[in-house]
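in:
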């Protein structure tokens, strides 16, 4: 110890400084380092949480972008299906309209055919009547010239009966 005193070192003073240093260290640790370290730890956790939240948001955005692309693709498919369905329905309606038009044309043609046949029958009947009237007139003239009265009457009656029976057919 003498050596220490000869060097000018005061042991009491060094012990007092060590005690003061430990006290300051304890006070600083409790009131300065503790809160600062707690604040830094809290800040570190908050930054880690923000980084994690940002990563989750980015993942969600990527997922939402994929869902958006899928929705757009699905909408495109549905639109194409609707267009194809509308085309098919339009084709069916066109075909049905064509069938209806053909049916109407056939009915109209049939009606005109029937009308033409009726007119043809009427014309034939009129022609037959006219021809039969002319035949009777010609026959009367011929009979009046060449035959006697009794023969004329008999032939006239026979011709009239023949004409009447041909008219009824």
């Amino acid at each position: 110890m003498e050596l220490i005193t000869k060097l000018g070192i005061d042991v009491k003073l060094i012990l007092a400084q060590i005690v003061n240093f430990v006290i300051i260290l304890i006070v600083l640790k409790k009131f300065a380092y503790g809160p600062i370290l707690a604040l830094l730890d809290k800040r570190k956790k908050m930054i880690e949480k923000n980084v994690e939240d940002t990563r989750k948001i980015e993942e969600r955005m990527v997922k939402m972008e994929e869902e958006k692309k899928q929705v757009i693709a699905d909408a495109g498919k549905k639109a194409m299906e609707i267009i194809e369905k509308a085309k098919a329905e339009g084709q069916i309606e066109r075909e049905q309209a064509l069938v209806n038009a053909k049916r109407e044309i056939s009915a109209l043609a049939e009606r005109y055919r029937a009308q033409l046949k009726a007119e043809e029958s009427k014309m034939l009947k009129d022609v037959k009547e006219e021809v039969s009237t002319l035949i009777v007139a010609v026959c009367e003239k011929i009979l009046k010239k060449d035959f006697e009265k009794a023969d004329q009457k008999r032939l006239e009656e026979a011709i009239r009966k023949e004409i009447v029976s041909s008219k009824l057919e």
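note: The chain has one domain: 2-168.
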